[in-house]
Amino acid sequence: MERYYKLPNTPLISIVTPSYNHSEFIEETIESVLSQDYPEIEYIVIDGGSTDNTIGILKKYEGKIKWVSEKDRGQSDAINKGFRMAKGGIFAWLNSDDIYIKGAVSKAAALLNANPDVDMIYGKAMFCNESGKIIGDYNPPEIFDYKMLAVSNSICQPSTFFRRDAFFAAGGIDLTLHYLMDHDLWMKMAKRFKIAYLPEFLSIYRLHTESKTVSDIHGLKRNRESINIRMIHYGWAPANHVYSYCYYLVKNKIPSYLAKFRFLIIFITLLISPVEYVRLNKGIRLDDIKMINLLNIKKLFFKGWELKDLMK
């Protein structure tokens, strides 16, 4: 592991933070970037015209960060805008409610420097709640496999770093996506470039009730988008993603007084999701049959299978 920390050079790394009305979190995000020990960081905050105290916080860091605040077309547009402004040879983005762990940027840069054939790296992440308490962690697969991106959202976005040329060659962020724009980017990049794992905790991913990742309000659209990008890249809607979509479909359709009964939602979902799965895939795939095991069944009925379950 020591080889990761000996930097042969220090290329400029551009980090972009898309922001909108996250004044309660963004200062901690900014501090986590500015306190990194890597000497060559360009930090850009693209704010969508926040109406809370975000602008006042950004003004405190004049001269230390670059920032703009103007109406945009959402998070995907803000990320693309930031990277178009960026001058670094290595890119990363850190959402305005997430945090870098100390030394994260140096570790990522060292691995990319030591492996010029690698265009993107991903590391481990911790999960924290709204108040910053660590509530779990995420250890991604150590060996990258393109197919793993179809089955699971196996790369945690704030723990990724990638080369500028690879980002633009892959077409950047798809502006039509609002939830899984990061996973769509990984899929596009994985088709053309080498991706490697860095066995280090690089970031803290914040889970809170307003987050698009965990909010029930966004659940149906998020899971519909998840299926769509997998159909585009793989021609396959994996059973677990079809189940997730149908789960939120049922939850949104049944009367509110019944929606509190989770086992009822699961039962109805199990009835309709096989029909939706066959409709989408025109048959049954062996990969999906292999996912039927005791561990996944326990997650389904007892442990919970979504990130928001860590918040309970």
Q: Notable features of this structure?
A:
312 residues; alpha/beta; 42% helix; 13 helices; 9 strands; Spore Coat Polysaccharide Biosynthesis Protein SpsA, Chain A; globular; disordered N terminus
Describe, in plain words, how this protein is organized in 3D:
The chain is built from 13 helices and nine strands. The chain is of the alpha/beta class and 312 residues long. It has two domains: 195 residues, Spore Coat Polysaccharide Biosynthesis Protein SpsA, Chain A; 96 residues, no CATH class. A hairpin with a 5-residue loop joins strand 6 and strand 7. The protein is globular, with a radius of gyration of 20 Å. The chain starts with 12 loop residues before the first strand and ends in a 9-residue tail after the last helix.
Number of domains: 2
Instruction: Compute the number of helices.
Output: 13
CA radius of gyration is 20 Å
CA-based shape: globular
Q: What percent strand?
A: 15-25%
Report how far the terminal alpha carbons are from each other.
35 Å
The CATH topology of the largest domain is given as Spore Coat Polysaccharide Biosynthesis Protein SpsA, Chain A
Topology as H/E string?
A: EHEHEHEEHEEHEHHEHHHHHH
Q: Which residues form runs of ≥5 with pLDDT under 50?
A: 1-7
- Level-2 CATH architecture of the largest domain: Alpha-Beta Complex
Question: Could you provide a short overview of the structure?
Answer:
The chain is of the alpha/beta class and 312 residues long. The protein has helices at 26-34, 54-60, 75-85, 104-114, 148-151, 164-169, 181-190, 216-234, 239-253, 256-259, 262-281, 286-289, 294-303; strands at residues 13-19, 41-47, 66-69, 90-93, 99-100, 118-128, 134-138, 160-163, 194-206. Helix 1 (26-34) links the parallel strand 1 and strand 2 (41-47).
